Amino acid sequence: METIVKINDAVNGFVWTTVGVWLLIATGLILTIITGFFQVRRIGHWMKKTVGSLFDKKVTGHTGEHASISQFQALCTALAATVGVGNIAGVSAAIITGGPGAVFWMWLAAFFGMMTNYSENILGIYFRRKNHHGEWSGGAMYYLQDGLGGYKGCKTIGKILAVIFALCAVLASFGIGNMGQINKIVINLTSAFDIRPLSSVVLYTSGDKSVNLYMVIVGLILMLLVGVVVIGGLQRIAMVAEKIIPFMVVMYILGSLIIIFTHIDHIGTAFGHIFSMAFTPKAAWGGAEGVLFSTIITQGCKRGVFSNEAGLGSSVMVHSNSNVKEPVKQGLWGIFEVFADTIIVCTMTALVILTSGVIDLDKGMTEYGDSTLVAEAFNTIFKVGNVEYGRYFVAIAILLFAFTTVLGWSHYGTKAIEYLAGKNAPVATKIYKIVFVLMIISGALMTSSIAWDISDTFNGMMMIPNLIGVLAMCPLVMKLTRNYVDRRIKGKDVEPMLSYDPEIQRENAKAIAETGED
Questions:
Q1: Alpha-carbon distance 274 to 101, whole Å?
Q2: How far apart are CA 148 and CA 414, in angstroms?
Q3: Which SS3 state, helix, strand or coil, does residue 212 take?
């Protein structure tokens, strides 16, 4: 086990610190520049076409098609996979390890990540195709294979990177997308809502952690619930996500705002520490050794990516199932996805921590861990006598966020298996779903963080081939963006760019012309 941990730490450090973070920021920066700072210059347009269109039945209404889901369902399913433990415990860990300055780098990564996610989405729609069930299939695997692989002399490298991405996606789906999320649900739920007759029955102990009967029962219930949804396919996952995600995000934001406004006199100090420690770490933070500048950057960017997944190439696998015909239209939802996940939800978590007094901003000292820090921050207000309503609220938030994350990642793993299995996909995807559901009980009983740590490494290993593909296709991203702006914003009469496949291009162009889709 020690050898595995050492190897994983070495690979993780290389993937995230040596290569990943810098490649991620560079990709986002390049895409931001070549699209003319699209996320800023066209903010009115993408806000209108996303949050401003939520009352448009064309956007939110169910398609009735077996092959696709609505644009709003695609967003909710993508947010289901991204808005999870990373938005709560992940932000806490970033602040504890890297200090308040990590929040600044989280914002910066999200700002550039908007255009990375935008680019992934439009490439996913542009290179998607129908699978054996007549459903849309898209993702980094396909734009690596057909996009990067379409360049002269790049066919082999494109295919190899596509396979590496798909393999890492499958492995990450079992870790960060399944066991890691379930483990956090079980620990928080059984701790907040303790039932002594069940929790007192200890089944086994490993190190300083123990597993009790209560955890097993919660794990079995979660396995049953996930199984009912996952076996039902994407349509059922999307229906669950569109009901849970908007409700929980709004409730979490409202709860956070109550904490923040109650401690409004600390808001200036919180922002002061975020900006001052982003570039000049305090020597006292975190103890005698302080915190390294590189740690601040790494923690902020890493936790930002872990939260919004921009650059991983994961969420594009569900965005590609949208009924949209314009690649750029789904790209706009990608911008909003990162904005909602990191700029809004993660910022709420950060400000709750930094304003509530649960951490000493001068010394970086706290008696709480990353999994309990936010709960204690909520308890500063939502606590009556010995009843800690704040802890209950956070436990329920983690339950719903993490549960939907598991559902979202089950779809990602299914699509990756579908690509790897080829003509054997119908059987392979069924087997994968069964194994994925069964692995939930392992997450409930997990006492070591090694599965979480290893899947974090696979997450990073997904990112590298994906970013190579996105960078290689920057010219195409620029062309697709310019084509959309010319037609939809400037009103020019030019032929739309909708798909790499001539047949799909003709079908979609005809449909747009007939329906007048905007």
A1: 4
A2: 23
A3: strand
Distance CA 431, CA 1 (A): 29
What value, to the nearest 5°, has the Cα angle with vertex 117 and ends 95 and 309? 40
Residue type, 223: M
**Domain range spanning residue 507?**
2-515
Question: Which are the contacts of 385, defined by CB distance < 8 A and separation ≥ 6?
Answer: none
Residue 288 has what pLDDT? 44
Task: Single out the residue of 271, 259, 217, 498 nearest to residue 373, CA to CA.
Answer: 259
CATH number of the CATH domain containing 46: 1.20.1740
Task: Please tell me the total count of domains within the chain.
Answer: 1
Gap between the Cα atoms of 440 and 434, Å rounded: 10
Contact indicator for 470, 300 with CB cutoff of 8 Å: no
Over the stretch 111-157, which tens digit does the pLDDT of each residue have?
A: 999 999 999 999 999 999 988 777 888 899 999 999 999 999 999 99
End-to-end CA distance of the chain: 56
Lookup: tokens for 312: 């991983």
Q: Return the pLDDT at 485.
A: 93
Q: Which residue ranges in the chain fall short of pLDDT 70?
A: 1, 55-68, 84, 207, 281-293, 306, 364, 370-371, 448-449, 451-452, 516-518
The pLDDT value recorded for residue 114 is: 93
